[in-house]
Amino acid sequence: MTADGFRLPAEWEPQAGVLIAWPHAGTDWGPRLFQVESTYAALVLAITRFQPAIVCVAGAAVRARAAALLDNAGVDAARVRFVDIAYDDTWLRDSGPITLTDGRRFRLCDFRFTGWGGKFEASRDDLLVEGLAAQQLFAHAEHRRIDWALEGGAIESDGRGTILTTWRCLHQRHPEQPREAMAQTLRKSLGAQRVLWLERGYLEGDDTDAHIDTLARFAPDDAIVFQACDDAADPHYGELAAMREELAALRTADGRPYTLHALPWPRPIVDEQRRLAASYANYLIVNGAVLMPAYGDPADAAAAQVIAAAHPGREVVPVPCRPLIWQNGSLHCVTMQLPAGVLA
What processes does the entry annotate via GO biological process terms (predicted)? Predict the structure, then answer.
C-alpha cells in the first residue's frame, strides 16, 4: 500500500463498470470504421450483460451513431453512460485512469501518456483522465497527475502488492533510468511492495514494446495465464519459450512458484503482408465473467477452456477481435475497468 493506504486492485475484484472510447472517422480506425464498430458493439453488449459501460464519445454525432449501433445490437441503454470528451484514439487501457483504492476513497493515477514512446500523436489522450475527472464522473476520487510515462497495459497487479511488467517496455519509455529507480516509482505510485520483471516475450505487430497484457496475466490463487507458442517453425517460438521459463522461475510473495496456465497459439493472421498481434492473453475480466478475444481460429475454443480454468466460476464470453488487431491491439487494450464504488 501507499503511505496513506492506497493499493491497485486486481482486475478480478468487484467493478463499477468498464470505460471505453467509441471509434470514429477522425481516429486511426477511419479506413475500417464499419468493421471495428461491429466489434465495439459486440464488446459493449458483452460488458453490459454484467455491469455498466461508460462510453466516451467525441461529440454529438459520434454519440448518436454509437447509440444507434448499440441499440441495433440489442444493448440495454440503461446500462450505458455516454461521456462527451476529446481523444486521439481509443486505447483506453493506456490513456485511461489507473485507479487505486483504500477501500473507501479512490485515487485516479494520471500517468504521462506519450503515444507509446512517441510513436503516435497523443496530446488529447494525455488530457483524458483530467477531463473525465472534471466531468464529475467519479465519486470520492482524487485526481493525481504523475509526471512519469506509463500505460495501463504495461502493468499487472495481483491486488496484494505485486506488480508484473516487462523490461523491454519500461526501458523504452525511460532509457535513462536504472531498473531499481523504475521499480521504486512503481512501488511508490501504485502502492506495491515488489515488482517482477520479464526480460523475454514479444509479439510481431505489437507497437507497445511488449506490454505485459499481451503476454502474461495474473489470475486468482497465485496463478499466471500466459501466451504460449507450440509451433517450432514460428518466429515467436524461442522468445515465448524463454518467457515461459522466466515465469516458471518467479515466486509468490511467500516464496512459492506460481500456477501457470498456457494459452494456445492461434494461426498467423496477416494483413497486407503484416503479421498482426493476436494474443489470447489480452482478455478482460468483469463481474462474473471473462471477455475473451476471439479470432475465428480453431484455437479459440481451447483458449476459452484455459481461461475458464484460471478464473473458476466466471463465464467466458468470446468477443470477435480480428478488426482490433489491425491497429495492433486487442480487447483488453481498448478497455479500462473501474473498481466498485468509484462512479458517481
Answer: putrescine biosynthetic process
